[in-house]
From TrEMBL:
Name of protein: M48 family metallopeptidase
One family name in Pfam for this protein: Peptidase_M48
Cofactor binding, note field: Binds 1 zinc ion per subunit.
Family: Belongs to the peptidase M48 family.
Annotated CDD domains: M48_Ste24p_like (cd07325)
Cofactor: Zn(2+)
Length: 400
């Protein structure tokens, strides 16, 4: 049964506005996008690297940044921005965080929020965001940033950036620059998927899909919510997905290439899809991976789940470029089937119901017969020289 116990505190104080489900011991794998989860599971296998990184980063730059916000911003507490302070406590309680991160409010008219730090992460929200969102919407944003902290995105993003910098040595090698650009493109793609992950974490904290989508709409279009419609915004997302022809598809790829966040319409559509799916409902029912199971997570299984997710995304997309890719892949499969049929004696169409070849003519009784010897020639021709099926495959679970 899901835990619906309210956050502990003094009687009548520091309690959430309404009862929400709590997720004891929840692993970040529960809400992470498959592409994000696959990368994180692989990086977590580099045992010790993350601990060293936390110590080195925490001793220097993280301390410096925290001191800067401590000196120049307002830290929430029971006496300062109390409603934000209570939201952070509630979000940490719902996601069963080891500790409640500090929250700072900084003067900036641009609506924004961020999770900073590795050793002792904290959250920063701008005054522009505080003024833009209502309490329920702000709760989902706090939950989003808690998701970054629980996933360890700051640690592993820094780790990957360091690894990318190490790869700069390839720049002196022919095609090295192209290799670096490919790594950076993959890194940015992971960053964008990690944002989709934390939109889900925000939904787990707020537990109201309409509120989560409403917050993203406001970030896109401002505070005039009465002038906006969730259904119409989702229609925008569908139009963006299917927009125009191949030229628009290329332009969309170019527009997103340098972005760390997906576009708001994409985020709303992805969140709506996840909220309507079985994973979200299973988590609410208490069925989710636990943190103590994380060391046993398989890199191979997560990589397969990531590939399946991309494949499903291509299948569902109405984008003209993805449609062309589906046609090309389908055409290649058909061509390969016809080529296989030609060389295996199957008829065209690739249905696999090949007609058996006519039986050989029977030699007359007085015709000379070949010497069959011991009959081992037939055994050799049956393909036994290739070994048993799957002999060349790696053992199950290897590489994890």
């Amino acid at each position: 049964m899901p835990d619906t116990t309210k956050q502990p505190g003094a009687e009548g104080a520091n309690l959430p506005a309404r009862q929400r489900i709590r997720f004891p011991g929840i692993s970040s794998r529960a809400y992470e996008h498959p592409a994000d989860r696959s990368a994180l599971v692989a990086l977590r296998k580099l045992q010790g690297f993350d601990a060293i990184l936390k110590q080195l980063h925490g001793m220097l730059s993280e301390r410096s940044v925290r001191l800067a916000f401590l000196a120049g911003s307002v830290r929430t507490s029971d006496q300062q921005f109390r409603r934000l302070h209570d939201m952070a406590r509630e979000a940490a309680y719902i996601l069963d965080m080891p500790q409640v991160p500090e929250v700072y409010v900084t003067l900036d008219p641009q609506p924004n929020a961020m999770a900073i730090g590795m050793d002792k992460p904290f959250i920063v929200v701008t005054t522009g965001l505080v003024e833009l969102l209502d309490d329920d919407e702000m709760r989902t944003v706090i939950g989003h940033e808690m998701g970054h902290i629980l996933s360890g995105h700051a640690v592993y993003r820094t780790m990957l950036l360091l690894l990318t910098n190490l790869s700069l040595s390839l720049s002196g090698i022919p095609l090295g620059t192209l290799a670096i650009q490919a790594v950076i493109a993959a890194l940015r793609e992971w960053f964008r998927k990690s944002e989709l992950s934390c939109d889900r974490a925000g939904l787990l904290v707020g537990q109201d899909p309409d509120v989560s989508m409403r917050a993203l709409m406001k970030i896109a279009g401002g505070s005039h919510l009465h002038e906006m419609s969730t259904d119409e915004f989702l229609a925008q997302a569908a139009e963006y997905d299917a927009a125009g022809d191949i030229r628009d598809s290329v332009l969309k790829l170019m527009n997103v290439f340098g972005r760390s966040h997906p576009f708001p319409v994409v985020r709303v559509a992805e969140l709506k899809r996840w909220a309507d799916g079985p994973e979200y409902q299973a988590i609410l029912a208490g069925e989710y991976p636990r943190r103590d199971e994380d060391p046993n997570a398989s890199v191979r299984d997560e990589a397969k789940a990531s590939a399946d997710a991309y494949r499903e995304s291509v299948r569902q997309s109405a984008d003209p470029l993805f449609g062309l890719l589906r046609d090309v892949v389908g055409g290649a499969a058909d061509a390969g089937g016809r080529l296989r049929d030609k060389f295996t004696g199957r008829p065209g169409g690739g249905t696999g119901t090949a007609t058996a070849p006519p039986p050989p003519k029977t030699a007359p009784d007085d015709a000379p017969r070949p010497d069959t010897g011991s009959g081992t020639a037939n055994g050799t021709a049956n393909g036994t020289d290739e070994g048993p099926a799957g002999a060349g495959d790696p053992p199950p679970g290897s590489g994890s």
